[in-house]
Design goal:
Helices cover 89% and strands 0% of the residues. The protein contains 4 helices and no strands. α3 (51-60) packs across α4 (65-121).
């Protein structure tokens, strides 16, 4: 169990460093990094204390603390990935609406260009 908690601590710290470095280099926006930082901080807190793991283990009825820890970690990352999916879906919808508006503007410009050409020719 101590090895698993140690590995989780190292993983959480590495994830925090990677997210902060990505924010610094502008590879990820700050509002998206917050959920990853919170998830890694929660896992880091769980890796340093045995009491919450024992409480979750008895609450869930899981016979093994490492299994409870992996279940919690999986749930945390599913929530973070779901939030990311919501953001991606919103961006896709905005992108479609923007493409439609650009197409309408292009059509209007082309029709105005044709009107100018016919007015100057005639």
């Amino acid at each position: 169990m101590a090895r698993l908690l140690g590995a989780l601590s190292v993983f959480s710290l590495a994830m925090m460093v990677i997210v902060l470095a990505s924010v610094r280099r502008a590879h990820i926006r700050v509002e998206y990094s917050v959920s990853w930082l919170l998830a890694s901080a929660l896992l880091l807190a769980l890796s340093f204390s045995q009491f919450p793991l024992n409480r979750v283990e008895t609450f869930l009825g899981v016979p093994d603390a490492p299994a409870a820890l992996l279940m919690i970690a999986g749930c945390i990352f599913v929530v973070v990935l779901y939030r990311s999916s919501l953001h991606i879906s919103n961006l896709k919808d905005s992108n479609i609406a923007l493409a439609q508006r650009v197409a309408i503007l292009e059509y209007r410009l082309e029709s105005l260009d044709e009107k100018i050409k016919t007015a100057s020719a005639g």
